[in-house]
Amino acid sequence: MPVKDPDQIRTLLEKVRTIALVGASEKPNRPSHEVMEFLQSKGYRIIPVNPRLAGKTLLGETVVADLASLPEPVDMVELFLAPERTDPVIDAAIEQKIPVIWMQIGVINEAGAARAEEAGLTVVMNRCPKQEIPRLGVQTAA
């Protein structure tokens, strides 16, 4: 079962430092862009992932094409993708042993979450860290 307990989510967000944000957008009005900017303002290092923008700079970070192209290990992968497009990313996160998979509001993949949990990963689903951080009083690095 994906994590729903507020204390567990708070602890997770206080431990995480580096996040791969899959589905990053260069458009300021897109939720992925807003969340990336918010998380950076809270002290998280965000590595944007989007094959269409790979090699470009987004909010001061170089965009990579996929999880295999990450320049360093990450603590969490956040998915801003349609649910039907999440399986390959979940499988890549499992393969790379990324400790946490966070699926954004509306991104629900029960089978993918179960696979990740069976592999020992923590899964948060249908939630937004931009909402959870202030709601839970998360103390971040910023």
UniProtKB/TrEMBL annotation:
Domain of life of the source: Bacteria
Chain ranges passing through the membrane: none
Residue ranges of domain CoA-binding in the record: 12-107
One Pfam family matching this protein: CoA_binding_2
SMART domains: CoA_binding
Annotated InterPro entries: CoA-bd (IPR003781), NAD(P)-bd_dom_sf (IPR036291)
PANTHER family cross-referenced by the UniProt entry: COA-BINDING DOMAIN-CONTAINING PROTEIN, CYTOPLASMIC PROTEIN-RELATED
Protein name according to UniProt: CoA-binding protein
Protein's organism: Marinobacter koreensis
Species lineage: Bacteria, Pseudomonadati, Pseudomonadota, Gammaproteobacteria, Pseudomonadales
